[in-house]
């Protein structure tokens, strides 16, 4: 509906240009928004205010001209002008009814597949394999996974890439420690990577002999020495199995097949440096090979370097990221590369993208986007820590979530069997952690608060999961198949209209999540839908209404609500429950 209305406005602007009211070269992006005050219509635009200056007209007068130039249509019920020149539009109820019927009959709820599918390569999670995954790895995995689901749902070919850190100096330290242990001791210590890492770091700090051996093993590793590679591979396999356990618990769609580690690009790194040299981009600075980009300068106005090779011959993240762009473009045939990495890496990616284009590693039409995110904070306003003040392992966090959810379930519902309680606790616990993250603007830091995220009130996973079971209970009581309800939609009550207007926005919201990589748009929408259903349910009799046509209509509204909540939560990576 939004797209159709934007098309009508584009026609109106073209008409005014033909009439000479607007200059022929006046161009502006036509964009509709939802008015904050719902009584002002379904859509609003400041188009007249943006075009008033080139038209040399009063914005309200231009708004009147735009409304008059909109061609005859069956979409709009009313148009009016507010304030200095905002135009508000109200969609006709007939259009609303048609959209409802289409969404109810469509397994995709009326969400249109893109007309121009692309190959989208999405880089997310990407932990460092030297340690177990911790709470700092949460946001990339969850946000990236949700956006990947949405982009895929819209018809694009999605290739997931888990760019794990499995290379570099810290692995020399770990390999040196592995050498010191016998097989039994090694297997036991590797069962807890966090403990293993701390023990290796302690040896590294205390023994210069150990530290020297660690440095030698880095060289041996990068040179491909067989025994060293075998030890390294053992460590990597165990680390990746730890990661996969966490992904499976989180419901994140990453597998071992999606891992494209830093080490995978090792053979291409000399080629990256050589290609930069051939193009005259390299400058030697204090023995290191650098590229100075004039687009990025320090406070003294000096160009910042992108270091691609250290003075000792080693390579850096920048070199690997350049190789990854080449691989994702040339081998994976990506049209759009998306990176979900901490926003503190923003400058790094700006430099890498700029250099990749300048060096010809990225086609001019290759879309490169870094989608940053904030930090998970504790109630004290500092990065979230465990009770003992250390970094919280992600596996421990999920254990705690399930434990707290189980206590909540046992307190609220004694009709479930012990097995059902465990299942509900698992879904509610994990979903609460995920939803608390996804419901926040990814650009912002957010406070990790158990009480808030596990609450049955407010914009939380428990609230939405319970709302879904509440809708489903209508059909259980009525013994009706929600996919086979006769009759047409009939909208008379204000609560029916409010719910219906929200339900037909699903297509618009899903596309906005994909466009902006902002899952919180979808979370806010689902919360609004659940709230609107609650108001509708409390005010409008469904099963016992005297008029059969209204009864059928309200059952269809309930069924469409359930489908929308289920599909929306699925796009967030959250499963629904039939009872809780």
């Amino acid at each position: 509906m939004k797209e159709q209305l934007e098309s009508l406005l584009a026609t109106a602007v073209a008409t005014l240009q033909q009439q000479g009211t607007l200059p022929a070269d006046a161009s502006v992006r036509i964009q509709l928004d939802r008015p904050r005050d719902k009584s002002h219509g379904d859509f609003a635009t400041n188009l007249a205010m943006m075009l008033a200056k080139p038209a040399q007209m009063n914005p309200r007068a231009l708004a009147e001209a735009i409304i008059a130039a909109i061609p005859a249509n069956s979409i709009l019920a009313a148009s009016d002008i507010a304030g200095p020149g905002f135009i508000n539009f109200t969609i006709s109820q007939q259009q609303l009814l048609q959209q409802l019927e289409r969404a109810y009959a469509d397994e995709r709820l009326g969400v249109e597949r893109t007309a121009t599918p692309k190959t989208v390569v999405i880089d997310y999670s990407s932990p460092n394999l030297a340690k177990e995954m911790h709470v700092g790895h949460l946001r990339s995995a969850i946000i990236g996974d949700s956006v990947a689901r949405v982009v895929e749902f819209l018809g694009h070919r999605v290739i997931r890439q888990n760019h794990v850190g499995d290379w570099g100096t810290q692995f020399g330290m770990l390999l040196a420690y592995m050498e010191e242990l016998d097989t039994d001791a090694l297997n036991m210590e590797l069962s807890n990577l966090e403990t293993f890492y701390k023990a290796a770091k302690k040896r590294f700090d205390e023994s210069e002999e150990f530290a020297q051996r660690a440095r030698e093993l880095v060289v041996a590793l990068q040179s491909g020495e067989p025994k060293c590679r075998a030890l390294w591979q053992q460590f990597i396999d165990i680390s990746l199995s730890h990661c996969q356990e966490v992904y499976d618990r989180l419901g994140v769609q990453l597998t071992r097949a999606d891992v494209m580690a830093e080490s995978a690009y090792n053979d291409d790194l000399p080629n990256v440096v050589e290609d930069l040299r051939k193009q005259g981009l390299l400058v030697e600075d204090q023995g290191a090979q650098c590229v100075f980009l004039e687009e990025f300068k320090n406070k003294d106005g000096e160009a910042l370097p992108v270091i691609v090779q250290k003075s000792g011959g080693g390579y850096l993240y920048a070199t690997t990221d350049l190789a990854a762009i080449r691989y994702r473009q040339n081998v994976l045939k990506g049209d759009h590369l998306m990176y979900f990495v901490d926003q503190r890496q923003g400058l790094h990616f700006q430099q890498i993208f700029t250099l990749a284009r300048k060096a010809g590693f990225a086609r001019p039409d290759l879309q490169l986007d870094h989608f940053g995110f904030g930090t998970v904070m504790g109630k004290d306003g500092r990065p979230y820590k465990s009770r003992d003040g250390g970094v919280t392992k992600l596996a421990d966090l999920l254990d705690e979530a399930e434990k707290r959810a189980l206590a909540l379930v046992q307190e609220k519902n004694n009709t479930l069997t012990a097995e059902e309680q465990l299942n509900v606790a698992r879904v509610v616990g994990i979903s609460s952690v995920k939803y608390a993250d996804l419901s926040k603007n990814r650009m912002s830091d957010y406070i990790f608060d158990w009480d808030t995220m596990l609450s049955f009130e407010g914009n939380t996973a428990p609230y939405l999961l319970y709302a879904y079971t509440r809708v489903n209970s209508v059909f259980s009581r009525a013994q009706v198949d929600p996919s086979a309800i006769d009759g047409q939609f009939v909208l008379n009550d204000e609560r029916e209209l409010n719910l219906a207007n929200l339900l037909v926005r699903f297509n618009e919201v899903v596309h906005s999540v994909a466009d902006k990589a902002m899952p919180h748009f979808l979370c806010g929408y689902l919360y609004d839908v659940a709230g609107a259903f609650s108001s509708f349910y409390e005010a409008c009799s469904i099963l016992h209404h005297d008029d059969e046509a209204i009864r059928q209509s309200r059952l269809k509204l309930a069924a469409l609500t359930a489908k929308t909540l289920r599909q929306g939560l699925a796009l967030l990576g959250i499963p629904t429950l039939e009872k809780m």
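The chain has 21 helices and twelve strands. The longest strand covers residues 288-297.
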